[in-house]
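I keep forgetting this: the sequence line spells out the residues, with the fold written below as integer tokens. I include a record here:
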Amino acid sequence: MYFLFFSIVSFQVIYPQELDIKVVDSLYKEDQFYAGVTYNLLGKKPSELSQSGFSIGFHFGFIKDMPINKDRDIAIGIGVGYSANSFNQNLKITKDDLGAISYRILGAEDNYSKNQFSSHLLEIPIEFRWRTSTPVEYKFWRVYTGFKFGYLLANTVKFNGDPEHLKYKGLNDFNRFQYGLTLSMGYNTWNLYAYYALNPIFSKDAMLDGEVIDMHAIKVGLMFYIL
């Protein structure tokens, strides 16, 4: 009896840490899902074109995280996602009965409450990822930079004014393929995000006063990552 009691007490004194062992995943991965919100700007826009109201974008998707070093703090990410974007501005887009599309800058004499085009994109993000994470640290610094390729699923143009209300879908003047550079950086939940398009929103068929509309998208906002 005394020998059994001594054995139990000795085991608890000598090996207390053995009772609280936590399994550490040495092959951990980070940031598999993402969701973000951005303020959308227009770059390289015509001189008289201006934005009004709040142009917003929503983004979410899944990225396969693939660490490439022993410490697993450097990785490549490849994924798939969805993006919905709106742009409020004063470029009026109209289509006649024959399907011809024309563009005009709205002026002070035009009475309207909304002039907007929007897009829905299927996206493929590719990222080079650096972070200060460890197998047991869930709050860390990150810098993710890369490239995002988008395929236009749908577009919509809306104009609400006096005396007409217009709405078009699926206009061919929008570039079907859109792509640009991305950057995400931050700590833990909050991360600044930026996207800079490398090609125009509209195709070369979109002309304003005889010149190609060469403006592209710039998006800045917040990105949230989930394991």
